[in-house]
User: Fold this.
Amino acid sequence: MAERPSGVKKNEARTSPVRFRHKHLLAISDLDRFEIESLLARAEAFAPLAEQKIKKLDTLRGRTLINLFFENSTRTQSSFELAGKRMGADVVNMSVKSSSVAKGETLIDTATTLNAMRPDLLVIRHGASGAAELLSQKVDCAVINAGDGKHEHPTQALLDALTIRDRLGAIEGLVIAICGDILHSRVARSNVALLTMLGARVRLVGPPTLMPAGADRWGAKVFHDMRQGIKDADVVMMLRVQRERMDGGFFPSAREFFWFYGLDEDKLKFAKPGAVVMHPGPMNRGVEIDSGVADNPNISLIETQVRMGVAVRMAVLEALAESGSNAGAR
Assistant:
C-alpha cells in the first residue's frame, strides 16, 4: 500500500486495510464483513486528503483508468474521475453518445476494443443488470460496477456507510430506514446487504407499487406507512423516484407521492431525536424530499456523502490496483 498523505491517521479501533482478494468490485454481496471494514478503513485514511493543499498522490502513477458510463451521471462519474486523478492515474472518460456504441456496437465488442488498449481499471455504469459482470469476463483489467440496472451500486453503499460512521461513530445497532422507490433502486439493494452485514436494523419504506416482490427476504423489514417506517430511526435515507425506469402508473402524481412518502419536517419528527437524513442524489425536491430538510446542515448528510464518495473510490482503486498483482485474486 502506498504511503498515506501527511496528517492522515487511521482509526486504530477499526480494521486496518489489508490486501484485497478480489480482482473486481461488482457487488456488495461478493464481499464479507472483514473486506467491507477494510475498504472503509482505507477510505477513512483518504478522507482528510480533501482538506489538504496538495491533494495528489502517486499511488496509481502509470496506471490507466477508463470511465465507461452508458447512463447519465454527475456525482459518480466525476467522483471516480477525481479519485483517479488524486491517486495519480491517467483517467479517460469515454463518451458513449459519440462512440461506436451509438452506431450499434455491442457491449462485448466495446469490451474487446477497450481491452486492446490495455487499461488497468475500468469503471462501468449500464442500464442492464449484470452488464458489469459480463464486462469483467471479457477484459483483463479490474472492473468496478458503478451501477448496473436495478442490480447493485457497491461504491454508493460504501460511501453511505462511511458517511454514517463519520457522523454517528458506528453502524452496529442503528435503525436505518431506506425510503421511496425501492423497486428501481440498486442503491437500496447494495445498502441493505452492506448495512445489515455491519449490524444495522434496516427498514424498507415505500408504496406497494414501488416495493419489489420478495423485498421482505432481503433481510430488512418492509413498511408501507412512512411514519411507521421511520419511527425512532437513527438514519432516514431517501431514494430518488426513477421515472426514467417507469413504464406505467406507479403512483397518481408527484404531489400525492410527496404527501404520503416525501420527507418533510413533520414526518421527520417521527424519527429518533437527532436523526440524520441522507440521499444519494440527484434529488427531486418536492417529490421525495423537502428543501427545508435537504438543506438543513444540522440534519442533512447529503454534502458529506458527496465528499466521502471520493475517498471511498480512492480506496477501491487502490485496493484493486494492489490485487492486480495478486495471483490469488478472483
Notes: The two ends are 19 Å apart (CA to CA).
